Amino acid sequence: MFRAWFLSLALANGLASAAFAEAAPQLLSVDVDHASVLKVPRPAATVIIGNPAIADVTVQDATTMVLTGRAYGITNLIVLDGDGQPLIDEKVAVRASEEGTVRIYRQAERQTYACMPECEPTVTVGDTEASFNLAITQHTQRQSLATAVTK
After folding, report:
1. How many CB atoms lie under 10 A from the CB of residue 80?
2. Which of 5, 98, 112, 126 is most buried, judged by most C-beta within 10 A?
3. Which residues, in sequence order, are CB contacts of 137 under 8 Å at separation 6+?
4. Cα 61 from Cα 100, distance rounded (Å)
5. Containing H/E element for 138?
6. Cα 29–35–39 angle (5° rounding)?
7. What is the DSSP string of 117-130?
């Protein structure tokens, strides 16, 4: 009796999970400051990104796009063909890239380092204002020096 009840419960749970999976919206994900190639089956005519401050799309050719994560958050992407039919209509989640990073917490203050293989301060939203500003200032100054040399 218990075995039949358990089997029917497992079957019902599996059917409910399958129904939920079919109803769940598609979700594209990309890390901040990273890119992902998107291919569509037919030529795209219109590309719409809900919030270009969160994610951006660059069209490479009629069937190839590059999705770039700009800031943490969720937005949406719609790609239409020449007849106005949707090729893609999905949510886009932009998340933090944790790979190769170390976060140092001092009570409520946080500072992030990129460690590949040496650890150096990096600019990461959510770090303390002092460490964020110091890292951005140093990056900006370094970039200015590099471009001044090439001129």
Report:
1. 17
2. 112
3. none
4. 33
5. helix 129-150
6. 75
7. SSEEE---TTS-HH
- Beta-carbon contacts of 119 under 8 Å, excluding residues fewer than 6 positions away, are 102, 113
Instruction: Report yes or no: 80 and 45 within 8 Å, Cβ to Cβ.
Output: yes
Output the six-digit token pair for 138.
């140093």
Kindly provide the residue ranges of all beta strands, DSSP E only, lying in 19-100, ordered along the sequence: 27-31, 35-39, 46-49, 55-61, 64-69, 73-80, 86-95
With cut-offs at 50, 70 and 90, classify the pLDDT of residue 24.
low
- 42, two tokens: 């037919």
Helix or strand (DSSP H, E) at 102: strand 101-106
Helix (H, G, I), strand (E, B) or coil at 89: strand
Two tokens, residue 56: 């951006």
Tokens in use for 146? 């590099």
